[in-house]
Amino acid sequence: MLVKASAKFIRISPSRLREVMDCVRGKSVIEAEGILLNIGKRAKGYIQKVLKSAAANAKVKGFSPEQLYISKINADAGPMWKRFKAAAFGRASKILKRTSHINIELDLKNK
What is the pLDDT, as a whole number, of residue 109? Predict the structure, then answer.
């Protein structure tokens, strides 16, 4: 682990994020940014934002994005917002609005 970035309490479910994360896991930063530009899922925006943050953190430490790859990327479940919706016969059904925590770690490529 060379550089880290994270985003917490993102209003999207972790399973939706993991679909997109599987496409970029293990790729170089430049390649991952290109892949994310061509994906048609809402989760890509959140992942792009955290990836850009990690690349900026690397730049502060003196590394360029060409030298780095995504060594670890994961989405953990955050707290759920609990809501209720009216159901038949005067009952209520539960709605769980899920949140996520995104973590990205970048490392140097082995040459």
Answer: 87
pTM recorded for the entire structure: 0.89
Positive/negative CA dihedral, 35, 41, 46, 49: positive
The Cα–Cα gap between 109 and 66 comes to: 9
| Residue bearing tokens 């990327």 | 73
Tokens of 108: 């140097």
Contacts of 24 (CB under 8 A, 6+ apart): 31, 32, 35, 36, 47, 51, 70, 73
Going by pLDDT thresholds of 50, 70 and 90, the confidence category of residue 52 is: very high
- 53: alpha, beta or left? (left if phi > 0; alpha if psi -120 to 50): alpha
